[in-house]
Amino acid sequence: MSRFFRTQNDSSSSSESSDEELLSSGEEAPAQPAQPKQPMSRFLKTAGDSDASSSSSSSDSDDSDDDDQPAPVAKPAVNRFLRKNAGLGGGSDSDDSDDAPKIVKSAKDKRIEEMQTIGKAIDNAVKIGDWNAASTEFEKLGRLVQRQTGVSEPVPPYWLRAIVSLETAMSATKEKDSKKKLNAAATKALNGLKQKVKKASKEHEELIKEYNKKKAEEKYIAALAPPPPPPKEPAPARSRVAEAAAPGEGPDFTTVGKGGKGVQHTQDTVLKDLAQVNENRGKKNTDRVEQVRTLERLLAVAEKTYLRIRVLLALISARFDYNPAATHMPIDAWMSAQEELDQLVRLLLKEPAYSVDEQVDVEYDDIIERNPKDHGDADGIVRIRGSVISFVDRLDEEFTRSLQNTDPHGTEYIERLRHEKILYKSICLAELYFERTSKEDPRARVIMRRLEHIYYKPDVLVEALEQVNADADSIPALSLRASGNPQSLVHSICILLYKTTNPVLRTRAMLCHIYNHALHNEFYTARDMLLMSHLQESVHSADIMTQILYNRTIVQLGLCAFRCGLIKECQAILQEIFATQRVKELLAQGLHQQRYTTLTPEQEKAERNRQMPFHMHINTELAEAVFLVASMLIEIPLLASLDTEEAKRKTVSKSFRRLLEHANRQVFNGPPENTRDHIMQASKALQDGEWQKARDLIQSIAIWNLMPEAKSVKEMLAKRIQEEGLRTYLFSNAPHYSTLSLELLSRIFSLSLRTVTSIVSKMIWNEELAASLDQASGVVVFHRTETTKLQQLALALSERVAQLVEQNEKTLDNKLGNSAAWADRGDGKGGEKRGGEVAGGGERRGTRTGTRGALRGGARGRGARFAQGLGGQVAGARAVRA
């Protein structure tokens, strides 16, 4: 074939290959003498000669050589001045490379290209699970970064991207391979890579945080992306089937069904198409995205009320079914489901002749359209099978789940939290619908959902949330406008829930009501409600979420007692929670790290799903500070009042006593760094009588600023520290005084004379202080009697005899197997009776054994008979001490 007729798809080989092609065609070349060939002008060649034709020509040329055809004569070199531009003409690669302009790259550009290459290698290694190769490439990248930072250049984003991507890939691999174990080599390489990535992540922690924040920005992504590709060739014409596979991309698209026929959705085929969608729902190979699109098109076509209700019910269900992520529903899908739910409820409110019920007694054909006139019940209402309350529950649960899986310290959490107002509006709209249709059980459930959104919020936030009910036609009976204030609104909602037959709703409503009272500093009202409801007796058999709500209510009640200045009540309430050392787990604000047991993936997933969203958390550091300060104000005077080691072992707060003993064992105490350090140093200062130092240390704790009415709380703490400092001073120094001026005490502790007199009088009345008050001279007269040597020996002997008897009785009980009987009697009537028989009715009753009860009862009883030989001496010594 003449070379002048070549097309654009022919070869771009060299001129020698072109001449061989002429010789190696299907016909044999005529024999002729060898003569030099003239060079063909390359200006006649086209731009896109294929390499395939060149290779086939070479193979044909070899065949022709086997048939003894004359070999082609080597032609002279082509003049380089006749060559065309690169990419348009032939010629060897070496010639082209010599003529092409050389690109000079800087060292920085070379490093960037090398980093890109290494990054691609890391991604490929991670995709195929080759952790050895990934570790090697990561080390190469680290050396490049180290070299770049050595020349005073910033850390490249490729390095940060590699760290973040490897962390994500390794965490995903851990979850994926929890069931399928890796081999030893891969596990070793993976662990080594984890250590390297962890070290690099720690070195560039701030940069990685900044990278994660800027990751979504277009400029930052553009900086990481490779140079833009050359412009694409025009796409080939799409088939009609391809156009139908992506509906909505053009005005003339057509949905294609089975057999390649176009599907047209009309008013008459809505029910039929809806039945087909419902039939395919849940099957293995069903495209859920396409189902949602089909239902959206059916909703756009449907005009009648019955059809729209049926399509909306199916569409909302399909929205909830489509969840590509295992954690929570995408925000755009959630927003669409919320809008469609509002549309459904408003349609039902507008058309009272149609009702959506969970149970429909009459069986009806789904393909036949129903109307109130022909298919209504006795009331003329068309009953459609469905559940509005289940949609509300699912919408609320998905909102909570999305908050659980969002970083609470980022802007995404705030943006997502703004949707609570939209959700609250949907809940109020559903409440209005159930109120007008007199459906009590669904109404109670939706009111409970509403209560759970407002019971823990301050009044300002509740008022802002209630602003969604501005439309007079969509306001339910229970509203802020009717109640007057948020606290009255919560009270009205709880009163309504108390009348329901569901015990779970009644229990949760009671706990929410108590929580709200505690939030408004109404301690006595909240305490009386908790005690009268007897929830503490039955909460252990409730579900886990109710137990979490109970724990949250208890902690809020303790904080309320502290704000009201009720220190003893606060310590007693919080003791139940903080004695377990699992505060975060009990409040569902974190997972408890168990030392000897591990949770299965299913258990861990269930616990994570129970976690409270971050904006509902109670500050555990604040609660711990409240508990420790309350324990300090109770324990320090108590320690000063006890004079025996055995009495000092009986603690009120074991956790506080443990922290205090640890602080006392410290050789050197530096300046306080955290809340515990402040409280422990304040406790030691209070023991030494330095109440000013203790007050300054407690008030300098920064956590008090997070508490409402922080100024009044600090003033209350200063006053209580003054009073407890006075009590501690009297307990510690009473043996060293015979009389003590009340005015002096008033000046030392900066208290009024009336307050000092009241405190001292109360201590004398409670028999905490052996003294009397001389109001005429304004002094406290201490009654001190020193025991003789014989009395001291008698006291020591009585204590040892009591210990010996108790030990012998324990041994006897273990031998006879009567330990259970003694345990049942405990400190009850058994020991009291035996003690009375031996000692004749001592004052201190209820000891564990009879002899110990006799000894202590006879000692406390003024002049009572004593047991077996020790009567006079021991009784006298005990009476002196008493």
Automatic annotation (TrEMBL):
Biased composition (Acidic residues): 60-69
Keyword Cytoplasm: yes
UniProt keywords, alphabetically: Coiled coil, Cytoplasm, Initiation factor, Protein biosynthesis
GO cellular component: eukaryotic 43S preinitiation complex; eukaryotic 48S preinitiation complex; eukaryotic translation initiation factor 3 complex
Compartmental location: Cytoplasm
Disordered, as annotated region: 1-103, 224-264, 816-864
SUPFAM superfamilies, per the entry: Winged helix' DNA-binding domain
Gene Ontology MF terms: RNA binding; translation initiation factor activity; translation initiation factor binding
Biased composition (Basic and acidic residues): 824-846
UniProt main location, coarse: cytoplasm
Alphabetical list of Pfam families matching this protein: eIF-3c_N (PF05470), EIF3CL_C (PF26569), PCI (PF01399)
Domain (PCI): residue spans on this chain: 614-787
InterPro entries: EIF3C, EIF3C_N_dom, EIF3CL_C, PCI_dom, WH-like_DNA-bd_sf, WH_DNA-bd_sf
Compositionally skewed regions (Low complexity) per UniProt: 23-39, 49-59, 236-247
Entry similarity comment: Belongs to the eIF-3 subunit C family.
Function: Component of the eukaryotic translation initiation factor 3 (eIF-3) complex, which is involved in protein synthesis of a specialized repertoire of mRNAs and, together with other initiation factors, stimulates binding of mRNA and methionyl-tRNAi to the 40S ribosome. The eIF-3 complex specifically targets and initiates translation of a subset of mRNAs involved in cell proliferation.
Subunit structure: Component of the eukaryotic translation initiation factor 3 (eIF-3) complex.
Protein name in UniProt: Eukaryotic translation initiation factor 3 subunit C
Organism: Serendipita indica (strain DSM 11827)
Upper classification of the organism: Eukaryota, Fungi, Dikarya, Basidiomycota, Agaricomycotina
Gene from which this protein is expressed: NIP1
